[in-house]
């Protein structure tokens, strides 16, 4: 809270304001907090005592300051807990401040600590403890002589000194009595204490830091003193008005000067006596008008202007408690309720009485003040409107009844639809203030409540969003204020109208709530609100079924033909939800649906689609909304088993679903997913209810037509059409798939295969996998059943192979790794299929398939994308820990259960590299999983994301440490690593990061054991694979990675070293200059790292490497390269002549 916003310590701001109420609220907040005492007392005492010790060390000084700040911030919500400790903290810090031997830096540091305390506890409470005797005035004042107002590092010192000086100004002695002890130097004019303080205050009112706020507090305490006001108030006010007049809010300097001056004036007119300030009020108001602050774009200046205006207005009016105000028995809600319980018949309301002071003259300036406050209610910033609302309340409390009622009328003028949302918000705040203070008489409620009802539903669309939430919140605040301010009998006529907006669970509120939804929310511009409103109507319809069926449903049917898109869309959704709700209720009560939905209503439901089709309302952007809404209608009517079987409307609905699925590519991307899901859900419900000849038996014609249509569209050149039709096949009921299962699975399997023409159709492959999974759940498992009707021994392996093959989909395009969507769907489908088989026919899970499944999941759980790694880990653990019954043939199950105990892994965040990779790297010790985990880790270790690289590398190196003393294990690991390399040769997705991984492993000595043997097979094969990988490559990243590997291979003795050097010397003459430079740099580091160059030529080799311009022309570079070959005994590479062109 800004200094200018706080009331005087220990005093109410206004006679009509009760400080007990605020104290009670503070107590309630304190009771709700968690802390009970200042628990860091000992630490704080030690921290403050060590300030001289940490002063010299900047790091320790900042650490102590930050620690103290952390301690104090804990008590922001309960600052009263600091009260018993404030005095000793203050004394410790003031010892440093008042000690003349203390260095300046220690004094400034002590004031920083004092500022932190004052910020948390509030300066008013803390300041009372500061020394404020007569003897303290001059020492505090003298401290300002050493202050630099432009030093932004020490502003806390000046801030606290100004506040300290303000509390010393409260001494009850004339300041002139202090001047007698001042000795002036010969020839030097003596400055009085009063003038010195005023000079300090004026100088700091125009600084740019927070000291400006403290200077305003100082001025308010100093200028309003009895001895100072006689001599200095007029001159200070004149200085203030001159400052305002010559300052402009168009410049930064002007804004700062006006801010400090306005704060000071507001504080003076707040704390000064009315009779002292009244002579100057009109002049100040006139000057303020000339400043034109409402035109400023500085929020704080406008707020201070409103604050000063209201203080001037209160100065014009005599302080009094309006005798005409409405008074409830107690200001505390709890006390009022208790009084009502104990004395229910005693009246607690003071009747409206004639205004005894009605004849008092109201100065003409008051009208100007009220007008400016009303303008402030419409300000664009909330803090200005809030200050204006408080001012309206304070002013109305001192006005005669008739004039106060005029003010209320002016406030009500803010609630016009020609006004902005700011005016509505400010008007609500003002009404709340008037009601809270008892200044809004019950006779006005009939005018106010309708306005509040509008405010409770206020919303104004602006572009793609809306405004009005602040207005609705403020209207709720008004309702809260009224509930506290008025007796129940005063509000009784309005309670139902206000509460029906929010409480629908009680019978008396149900119908008003339904009316509100139909009138205000079904046609809302926000689609989410329309959808939620329709669902709310579904719930409410069962509470008032007759009213809904007879009154609401016909209205909704008529609204489905509205020319307004939002109304039409919301009405169709509402019809769908309400019809299903009434059908459900009828079934629960054992009644026919016709008891609620008569023939006319049924006909209206059937006509919705045809009327929209005839009016061509399925086209364009609006058509997207209507397609989705009608699909939801179809689904709900089918699930409600409406008696439409054999009706022509079924063909119309089927056409809509088919047309939507075939033309998904024409639908905007942001709506496509929702429409696709709605159409698929509608198809599933429609086929189950209206395309069944008998229960469990499909209509042959419909089955033939739909299956044939969707299978044909799976080969569409449009990806979205494939997506929709794949999901449609997956949504068909079991009886629709009978005799067609093999055909459908074959069609979906074809979609999952990647070909050159549809390599980018990742979404189609993903949805085909989802469809396969759903079909498996739909048809169920019968081990010896026919493959055309159920999952069985004959088709399970084929389905597994399809799903597992999709785990190899690493397609990338401009969207990134789109193959990850396919892999994710494949993992989910594999989990669902395996758990299904495990529950019903576990013997169908073959050992090779289960091993391949678990290994592939382990690989995915070791890769670099957090989201998909986490999903793979969850699937892996779900299959491992499945126990109803356990999944058979899981490789190394005992070791896995030891590595991944159910209780321990439940808390692991598999999306966090720091937690996931150390766990998955343990699988490197299990031969069955080593290949696939190493394949996944290689991609992660050689990746780009810093956290992924760091923790995957740590996990890999931890395993390498464990096997360093086991030659056989190291040989096996090396063989697996080479196999991964060989299997992914020229596969840049794996080979490039694998080269980076090999570089790190060689550089960190993971294979140092192999250096004891010349031409170790691991090194020989690795060199050969690296040569093959970069053969004729122009990939700079791959070449740079291979250079590091060749440098690492130089450490191994034998022909491997010479061949590695030869490869490096070949790269020193690579056509790309960047490769030549990088090779020279890496070879230079290699020479320094490994002892492979004879000492006799070491200096010359390093000189050639460092001094040669390797990006020069190739003939020049080749000469230097050949010289290096001679020095190291490596055969010079020979140029191969290009074959002649005949």
From TrEMBL:
This is Tubulin-specific chaperone D. Residues 1-13 have a biased composition (Low complexity). One of its GO terms (cellular component) is centrosome. Found in a complex with at least ARL2, PPP2CB, PPP2R1A, PPP2R2A, PPP2R5E and TBCD. Interacts with PPP2CB. Part of a supercomplex made of cofactors A to E. Cofactors A and D function by capturing and stabilizing tubulin in a quasi-native conformation. Cofactor E binds to the cofactor D-tubulin complex; interaction with cofactor C then causes the release of tubulin polypeptides that are committed to the native state. Interacts with ARL2; interaction is enhanced with the GDP-bound form of ARL2. Does not interact with ARL3, ARL4A and ARL4D. Interacts with beta tubulin. Interacts with TBCE. InterPro entries: ARM-like, ARM-type_fold, ARM_TBCD_2nd, TBCD, TBCD_C. One of its GO terms (biological process) is bicellular tight junction assembly. Tubulin-folding protein implicated in the first step of the tubulin folding pathway and required for tubulin complex assembly. Involved in the regulation of microtubule polymerization or depolymerization, it modulates microtubule dynamics by capturing GTP-bound beta-tubulin (TUBB). Its ability to interact with beta tubulin is regulated via its interaction with ARL2. Acts as a GTPase-activating protein (GAP) for ARL2. Induces microtubule disruption in absence of ARL2. Increases degradation of beta tubulin, when overexpressed in polarized cells. It is found in: Cell junction, Adherens junction; Cell junction, Tight junction; Cytoplasm, Cytoskeleton, Microtubule organizing center, Centrosome; Lateral cell membrane. It comes from Capra hircus (Goat). Pfam families: ARM_TBCD, ARM_TBCD_2nd, TFCD_C.
């Amino acid at each position: 809270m800004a200094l200018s916003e706080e009331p005087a310590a220990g005093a109410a701001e206004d006679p009509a304001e009760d400080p007990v109420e605020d104290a009670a609220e503070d107590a309630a907040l304190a009771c709700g907090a968690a802390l009970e005492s200042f628990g860091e007392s000992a630490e704080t005492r030690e921290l403050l005592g060590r300030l001289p010790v940490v002063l010299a060390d900047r790091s320790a000084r900042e650490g102590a300051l930050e620690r103290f700040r952390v301690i104090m911030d804990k008590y922001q919500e309960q600052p009263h807990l600091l009260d018993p400790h404030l005095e000793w903290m203050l004394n410790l810090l003031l010892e440093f401040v008042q000690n003349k031997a203390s260095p300046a830096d220690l004094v400034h540091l002590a004031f920083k600590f004092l500022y932190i305390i004052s910020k948390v506890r509030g300066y008013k409470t803390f300041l009372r403890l500061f020394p404020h005797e007569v003897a303290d005035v001059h020492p505090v004042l003298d401290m300002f002589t050493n202050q630099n107002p432009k030093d932004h590092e020490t502003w806390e010192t000046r801030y606290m000194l100004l506040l300290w000086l303000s509390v010393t100004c409260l001494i009850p002695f004339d300041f002139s009595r202090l001047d007698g002890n001042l000795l002036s130097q010969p020839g030097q004019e003596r400055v009085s204490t009063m003038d010195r303080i005023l000079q300090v205050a004026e100088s700091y009112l125009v600084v740019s830091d927070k000291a400006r706020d403290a200077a305003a507090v100082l001025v308010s305490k100093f200028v309003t003193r009895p001895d100072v006001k006689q001599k200095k108030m007029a001159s200070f006010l004149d200085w203030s008005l001159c400052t305002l007049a010559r300052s402009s809010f168009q410049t930064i300097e002007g804004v700062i000067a006006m801010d400090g001056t306005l704060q000071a004036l507001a504080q003076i007119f707040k704390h000064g006596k009315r009779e002292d300030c009244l002579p100057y009020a009109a002049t100040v108001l006139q000057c303020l008008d000339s400043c034109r602050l409402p035109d400023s774009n500085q929020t704080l200046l406008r707020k201070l202007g409103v604050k000063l205006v209201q203080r001037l207005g209160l100065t014009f009016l005599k302080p009094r408690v309006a005798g005409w105000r409405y008074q409830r028995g107690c200001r505390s809600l709890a006390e009022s309720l208790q009084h009502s319980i104990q004395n229910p018949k005693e009246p607690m309301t003071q009747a409206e009485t004639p205004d005894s002071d009605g004849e008092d003259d109201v100065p003409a300036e008051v009208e100007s003040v009220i007008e400016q406050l009303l303008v402030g209610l419409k300000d664009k910033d909330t803090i200005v409107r809030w200050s204006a609302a408080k001012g309206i309340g304070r002013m109305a409390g001192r006005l005669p009844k008739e004039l106060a009622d005029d003010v209320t009328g002016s406030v009500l003028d803010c609630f016009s639809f020609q006004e902005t949302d700011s005016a509505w918000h400010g008007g609500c705040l003002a009404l709340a203030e008037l009601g809270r203070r008892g200044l809004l008489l019950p006779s006005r409620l009939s005018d106010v409540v309708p306005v509040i009802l509008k405010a409770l539903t206020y919303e104004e669309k602006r572009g793609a969003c809306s405004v009005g939430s602040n207005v609705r919140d403020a209207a709720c605040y008004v309702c809260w204020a009224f509930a506290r301010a008025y007796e129940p009998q005063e509000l009784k006529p309005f309670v139902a109208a206000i509460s029906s907006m929010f409480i629908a669970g009680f019978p008396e509120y149900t119908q008003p709530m339904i009316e509100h939804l139909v009138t205000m929310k079904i046609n809302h511009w926000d689609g989410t609100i329309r959808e939620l409103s329709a669902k709310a109507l579904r719930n409410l319809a069962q509470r008032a079924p007759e009213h809904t069926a007879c009154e609401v449903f016909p209205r909704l049917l008529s609204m489905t033909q509205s020319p307004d898109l939002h109304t039409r869309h919301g009405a169709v959704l509402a019809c769908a939800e309400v019809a299903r709700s009434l059908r459900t209720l009828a079934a629960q009560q054992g009644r026919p649906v016709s008891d609620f939905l008569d023939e006319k209503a049924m006909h209206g439901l059937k006509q919705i689609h045809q009327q929209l089709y005839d009016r061509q309302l399925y086209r364009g952007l609006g058509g997207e909304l209507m397609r989705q809404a009608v699909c939801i209608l179809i689904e709900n009517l089918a699930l409600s088993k409406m008696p439409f079987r054999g009706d022509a409307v079924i063909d119309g609905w089927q056409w809509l679903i088919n047309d939507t699925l075939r033309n998904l590519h024409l639908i905007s991307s942001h709506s496509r997913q929702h429409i696709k899901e709605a159409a698929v859900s509608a198809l599933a419900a429609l086929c189950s209810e209206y395309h069944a000849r008998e229960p469990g038996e499909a209509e042959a014609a419909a089955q033939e037509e739909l299956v044939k249509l969707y299978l044909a569209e799976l080969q569409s050149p449009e990806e979205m059409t494939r997506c929709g039709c794949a999901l449609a096949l997956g949504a068909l009921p079991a009886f629709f798939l009978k005799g067609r299962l093999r055909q459908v699975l074959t069609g979906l399997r074809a979609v999952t295969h990647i070909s050159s023409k549809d390599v980018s159709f990742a979404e189609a492959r993903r949805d085909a996998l989802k469809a396969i999974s759903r079909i498996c759940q739909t048809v169920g498992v019968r081990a010896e059943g026919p493959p055309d009707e159920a999952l069985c021994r004959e088709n399970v392996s084929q389905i597994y192979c399809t799903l597992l093959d999709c785990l190899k989909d690493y397609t990338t395009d401009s969207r990134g790794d789109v193959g990850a969507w396919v892999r994710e769907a494949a993992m989910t489908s594999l989990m669902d299929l395996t758990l299904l088989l495990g529950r019903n026919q576990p013997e169908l899970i073959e050992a090779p398939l289960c091993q391949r499944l678990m290994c592939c999941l382990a690989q995915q759980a070791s890769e670099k994308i957090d989201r998909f790694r986490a999903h793979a880990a969850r699937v892996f653990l779900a299959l491992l820990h499945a126990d109803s019954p356990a999944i058979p043939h899981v490789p190394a199950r005992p070791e896995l259960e030891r590595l991944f105990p159910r209780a321990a892994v439940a808390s692991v965040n598999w999306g966090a590299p720091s937690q996931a990779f150390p766990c998955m790297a343990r699988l490197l010790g299990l031969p069955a999983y080593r290949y696939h985990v190493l394949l996944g880790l290689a991609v992660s270790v050689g990746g780009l994301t810093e956290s992924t690289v760091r923790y995957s590398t740590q996990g890999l190196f931890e395993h390498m440490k464990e096997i360093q003393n086991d030659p056989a294990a190291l040989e096996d690991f090396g063989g697996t690593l080479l196999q991964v390399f060989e299997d992914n040769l020229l596969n840049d997705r794996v080979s490039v990061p694998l080269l980076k991984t090999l570089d790190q492993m060689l550089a960190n000595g993971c294979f140092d054991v192999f250096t004891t043997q010349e031409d170790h097979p691991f090194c020989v094969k690795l060199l050969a694979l690296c040569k093959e990988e970069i053969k004729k490559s122009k990939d700079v990243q791959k070449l740079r990675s291979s250079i590091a590997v060749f440098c690492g291979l130089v450490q191994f003795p034998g022909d491997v070293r010479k061949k590695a050097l030869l490869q490096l010397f070949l790269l020193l003459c690579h056509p790309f200059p960047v490769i030549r430079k990088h090779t020279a740099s890496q070879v230079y580091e290699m020479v320094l790292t490994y002892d492979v160059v004879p000492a006799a030529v070491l200096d010359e080799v390093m000189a050639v490497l460092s001094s040669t311009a390797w990006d020069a022309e190739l003939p020049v570079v080749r000469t230097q390269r050949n010289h290096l070959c001679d020095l190291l005994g490596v055969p010079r590479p020979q140029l191969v002549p290009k074959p002649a062109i005949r």
